[in-house]
Amino acid sequence: MDDATNGTRSIENAPMDLFNYAVDREDLKALLASFPDGSAVSRGKADYELQILKFIGVGWSISYFLQASPFKDPITEQYWRAVHELSQSISSNAGLMAGKEIDYFRELRDRLDRYINALADKPDVPEPAVVIGPEFARICGSSDDVHTVMVGVKMFIMVLAAVKEYLEALNLVGAKPS
């Protein structure tokens, strides 16, 4: 998302720029490398769930940072449309390999619901990552593993910061209708 900071991107590019950030795997690789050997969670499971958390985190961040913006709905809709199209491809390929129907987008919606419900259960927390990290670890099947909790926290914080920085570079955070 560096293009946004040098002024070469526009609001029209925002949904695809954000989508491209969501599918970029460099930060996932770094977080997975920080997992200690012998972790209770397999790297494959953590990788799968981190990618889901990243998709959700980007979508959540758009809605959060643009909540009062006239750009919120079009950017959000186009972002989720791109995620849905990718999900269909993933579902089709995974279904062929598994020999059964798979709905990756439904997986994303289910995880989003879990994270939203976890946040709703703790409305007084000052920082959503405090809830997201432990929920991420629960989803991974290791709610007591501090490393898994911290990886979830780090992913969520990194995504929020990156999306906020990008939207601020486009002057969209706090933008008012003209």
What does this structure look like?
By secondary structure, this protein is an all-alpha fold. It has one domain (12-34, 41-62, 71-168). The chain has eight helices and no strands. Helix 2 packs parallel to helix 5 (72-98), helix 4 (43-65) runs antiparallel to helix 5 and helix 4 packs parallel to helix 8. Residues 2-7 have low confidence and may be disordered.
In summary, what is this structure?
With 178 residues, the chain is mostly helical. The chain is built from 8 helices and no strands.
Helix content: over 70%
Number of strands: 0
Structural class by secondary-structure content:
mainly alpha
Arithmetic mean of pLDDT: 88
Order of helices and strands: HHHHHHHH
Q: Helix segment count?
A: 8
- Terminal Cα separation, in Å? 26 Å
Most strands sheet: none
Poorly predicted runs of 5 or more residues: 2-7
What would the principal axes of the Cα set say about the shape? globular
Strand content is under 5%
Number of structural units classed as domains: 1
Gyration radius (Cα, Å) is 17 Å
